[in-house]
Each structure stands twice: as C-alpha cells, then as structure tokens.
Amino acid sequence: MSHIDLLIDVGRLDRKSPDTEVIHAAIEARQTAHQLIAEERYIDALERVVAAMRELRAYSDYENVEFKALFAALLFDLAEVHYLLKDYKQSEKELDTLFKVLENLLREDAERFGPYHILAMELSTRILRSRKKAMDLLIKQRIAADALYEKVNSGVVAATDRLVDSLQKVGELLGAAGDYREALKFFAEAIKYSKKRTGKVTRKEIKMTIQMAETMMRVKSMKPRAKRLLQAVLPHAISLETIELEEEIIALLEIIDGETGQESRWKTFLHNIVRPVKEKIKEKKEKKG
Fold it and tell me: Please, what's the b/e burial string for 15-50 (b: 16 or more CB within 10 A of its CB; e: otherwise)?
C-alpha cells in the first residue's frame, strides 16, 4: 500500500470545540490502521478506518476544509485496503467518491490539495481493473491536473513522479501481456506528465520513448512509426550525453532496417519457390482443358 500522508491543519480548529476531539480521534484511528496494514492485518486495518469514518459523523460542520481533508485521506485508505482485500468493486466506488471530494477541495486550495489529486490519479492506475476505464478517468481528470502546473510546488512534482512511474509500469505490464496498443496509450500519458513536470526532455522521457518504440516494433504495421520515433529522440539522447541510450536507439534502428531488408529478401525467396509450382499447376490445367 502507498501511504498518503494528507496533513490535517489542527491548528485551525478551536481547541475547546468537541469537533477538535472528533478530528483527533479519527486521526488516531487512522494511524493505527496504517500500523496494521504494515503488519498485513488488513481486516483489522479496515475496522480501524471504518471506526475513523464513524468518528467523523459526529463532526458539526461537513463543509469545514479540515473535515473534508481528513475525509479524503480516509477514502484513500478505504480504497487501498479494499483493494488489498481483493474487494475491487468497493475499492472503485471509493475512488469515485474520492475524486468528487478532491474536486471540491481543489476549489478551496489548489496549491495545498493539488498533489493529492494527482496521487488519486496514480491510485486509479493501480486499482481500476479495466485499463480502458483507467485511461478514460485519467483523460477526464487531465484538465484539472494541467491547471496545477501553473503553480508548481514540490508536492505536485513528487506526486507526478509517482503517477509517471505507475503509468510506465502499467504500460510495461500490458506490453508483456501482448496488449501493445493499450500499452502505448499508458506510455504516452507517462511521457506527457513527465515532460509537464520537468518542462523539458530528460533521461526518463528518452527511456520511456525507447520503450514505446520497442512496443511498436512488435506490431508489423507500426514499425515505420517506431523508426520515426527513435530518429526523433536520438538527438535528445546525444545532447544529454547518455551513451547507453544512444547505443540502444541506434541498435533498435539497425534492427528495424535489418528486418525490413530481410523481409524483402524472404518474400523474394518465397516467390521464387512458389512461382514454378504455380506454373506447373497452370500447365496441367491447360492440358486437361
């Protein structure tokens, strides 16, 4: 489980208010849940998260920002624990609710809650069983995510790194499973977010672009695209002086060119073998006629 440390600003609460006691009790239950998860006691952890949710019911103002922030943190936990318990349907329901709460929090303070919105996107790539559904959700949330980069902070950068790594991993898994076209979509999203994070092409983007090209090479009709992609990224590898990536790109280009020439020779070879056979069959038919 990836722990989401969504900090609650208890200093903004009235110390004498019963609501403050509610927040502290819920936070304590959440901390216990995280300890239980680390021990792989998922059922006990679920009970503690539910207990924290139950504590929040007593809060007097559901529009309070700190209340909603803690509620979002608990939704992260619920989605993760249900996923660990293989209750995927429930986990996906909690993810849907989480995005609704976070969208509300973004309107309150985009700089503070922006990183958690991106982390929720990262969470979606891990728990959504349908990769199409995951991609549709990422595209839907992209508009909100794009706005966050106007005020880049360390939280957004760190969250984006996790999102990129998760997207890249899904692309690798899909490619290994033979679902090449879906794999390319995830690699493309990973590269897009990685570039947005850095504002330039780095070693990471070059490496993922090579992975994309390798995946394209497995589909005959996409080999020309793979070649163009490799040719486009080679100057970046050279400018960054990443010798191993340069060599990898050149090797892949040579493989593509070699396969193209070999394929042409193979077709000629097959044609030369098959043609005499066809001619003999044609002659026999003509004699019978």
Answer: eeeebeebbebbbebbebbbebbeeeebeebbbbbb
User: b/e string for 132-143 if b means 16 or more Cβ within 10 A?
Assistant: eebbebbeebee
pLDDT in tens, 205-237: 999 999 999 999 999 899 999 999 999 999 999
What tokens appear for 281 in the block? 């069959």
The string of pLDDT tens digits covering residues 109-119 is 888 888 899 99
Backbone torsions φ then ψ of 40, nearest 5 degrees: 65, 30
Give the integer Cα–Cα distance in Å for 20 and 7.
15
Two structure tokens written together for 4: 């989401």
By C-alpha distance, which of 127, 126, 114, 128 is closest to 196?
A: 114
User: Residue 179 region, left (φ>0) first, then alpha (ψ -120 to 50), else beta?
Assistant: beta
What phi and psi values does residue 140 have, to the nearest 5 degrees?
Answer: -60, -40
